[in-house]
Structure formats: structure tokens, C-alpha cells
Specification:
By secondary structure, the protein is of the alpha/beta class. The protein folds into 2 domains: 143 residues, Rossmann fold; 73 residues, ACT domain (Alpha-Beta Plaits, 2-Layer Sandwich), CATH 3.30.70. Helix content is 38%, strand content 24%. The protein contains 6 helices and 14 strands. Pathway: Carbohydrate degradation; pentose phosphate pathway; D-ribose 5-phosphate from D-ribulose 5-phosphate (non-oxidative stage): step 1/1.
């Protein structure tokens, strides 16, 4: 009898753990959705040139945009930040544009891996940091949408994978050594999942993830110094670029933060 009871308890415990994980996942997805919908409703207008960011939260932003284009007959031209963003635009039958013909973007809505109290962002967890920063820099406003787990006081409080740095493949070792000598920390050459070897970006480069140890660095100076190293293409620090951030909460509400 005791053996049977123990088996049943383990069974119920495992199912309870699965239920908790599923509820947590649902909570995160709901948080992403409410943040994305709020941002699109507030910032996308008729005849808008719209920068489409990358990542899981942006999926909901494009979904909401497609709904509004259909119901309100909006005319919106979408400029993608990545291959993924381009495919989302095509999937939802939205108008696809490019920087050549739309060099000034009204608003870009994008995700972030982490946002600190000064609205400094870590981006590039999905490997699209170069194109994301290009689109953001030519936008009148950069709006960040994220769930509550991305909201931090200091960079590194929650996001532990480090700051992505896109580099020319031939130079990744000396670049890594140079930054370690300057600021310490550790580096990982980002590895691909479905193939042997490193991740290769849309631009044919490698990504170094810099796991920093000093959270009190001047990120604006750090970003400028690292970008001066030959072979560094871009760094996933977005300093003084974000106009507004929306953080979806597990209860379904949204916390807003202005720069």
C-alpha cells in the first residue's frame, strides 16, 4: 500500500510541476502580447513607415499590426530588421519596404533582452543586433516591448548570457583578448544549434557573448571604446536610443517607462 501511495504522490508531483511550468509559459506569452498590442496601438498610424524588430515579442506586434491594417485600412510600410522580421511581414501580407526607398522611419518597435533603469538595452540574443541598430538609428522613435523578466535595475541583474558583439570571423580571438584586458569578464563564441560550429549572422559574421562582471561600467563609453576595435562590427548595447518601453506583467497589465 505504501509503495502504491508513493508512486501516486510522485505522479501527482510531476504533473503539478508540468502544470506550473505551463502556467508560467502562458503568463510570459500573455505579458509579451499585452505589451506588443499596447505599443502598436499607441504608435502606429496611417501612412507610417514602421521598423519591424526581431524576436518572440515582435511576433505579437506584427499580428496586431495586421489586425489594424485589415480593420482600419491603414497604409503602413514595414522595414525589417532581420530575415525573421521579413518573413513575418510577408506572412501577414503587409507592405514590405527597405531603407533604400525609406531612409527615415517613423517608429521602430523591437524587443530587448534586458532594459536597465537608465533605459540602456542589451539586444542581440537572437543574433540580429547589427540590422536592429541600423534600423533603430534611422528611426524617429525606438519603442521596446518586453515581458516583465526583462526589466532590471542594472544590466546583468536578470540577463546572464552577456552582451553580444558581432565580429569579423578572422579577428574574434584578438578581439576577445583585447576586451578582456580592458574590462575583464569572460567570452563565449556563440555556437549554432542545428549545425556544428559557430553561429553565422545574416551578415556573415560571428557573435561573441561577453559575460561581464562589473555592472557599474559607463555603458556609453564602453560601447564607443569596443566599437573602435578593428574587426568589431557592432555591439548589442543600445545607449540613449530607446524612447519608451512597455513591460507586460503576469496579471495582464503593462508598465510603461519613458526615457
Amino acid at each position: 500500500m505504501w509503495k502504491t501511495c508513493g508512486t501516486k504522490l510522485r505522479y501527482y508531483h510531476r504533473n503539478f510541476q508540468v502544470l506550473v511550468r505551463n502556467l508560467s509559459k502562458m503568463s510570459l506569452e500573455q505579458a509579451k502580447q499585452v505589451a506588443a498590442y499596447r505599443a502598436v496601438d499607441e504608435f502606429v498610424t496611417d501612412n507610417c513607415i514602421f521598423g519591424v524588430g526581431s524576436g518572440s515579442t515582435v511576433v505579437y506586434a506584427v499580428q496586431r499590426l495586421a489586425e489594424r491594417v485589415e480593420s482600419e485600412n491603414l497604409k503602413v510600410t514595414c522595414i525589417p530588421t532581420s530575415f525573421q522580421a521579413k518573413q513575418l511581414i510577408i506572412k501577414h501580407n503587409l507592405k514590405l519596404g527597405e531603407l533604400d526607398t525609406n531612409p527615415i522611419i517613423d517608429v521602430t518597435i523591437d524587443g530587448a533582452d534586458e532594459v536597465d533603469s537608465n533605459m540602456t538595452l542589451i539586444k542581440g540574443g537572437g543574433g540580429c543586433l547589427l540590422q536592429e541598430k541600423i534600423i533603430a538609428s534611422f528611426s524617429k522613435k525606438l519603442i521596446v516591448i518586453a515581458d516583465y523578466t526583462k526589466d532590471s535595475v542594472k544590466l546583468g541583474d536578470r540577463y546572464k548570457k552577456g552582451i553580444p558583439i558581432e565580429v569579423v570571423p578572422m579577428a574574434y580571438v584578438p578581439i576577445k583578448n583585447k576586451i578582456m584586458a580592458m574590462y575583464g569578464g569572460d567570452f563565449k563564441l556563440r555556437s549554432a544549434i542545428a549545425k556544428a560550429g559557430p553561429v553565422v549572422t545574416d551578415n556573415g559574421n560571428f557573435i561573441l557573448d561577453w559575460v561581464f562582471t562589473n555592472q557599474d561600467l559607463d555603458w556609453e563609453k564602453v560601447s564607443a571604446a569596443i566599437k573602435m576595435i578593428p574587426g568589431v562590427v557592432e555591439i548589442g548595447l543600445f545607449v540613449k536610443m530607446c524612447h519608451k518601453a512597455y513591460f507586460g506583467q503576469p496579471e495582464g497589465n503593462v508598465v510603461e517607462r519613458f526615457n
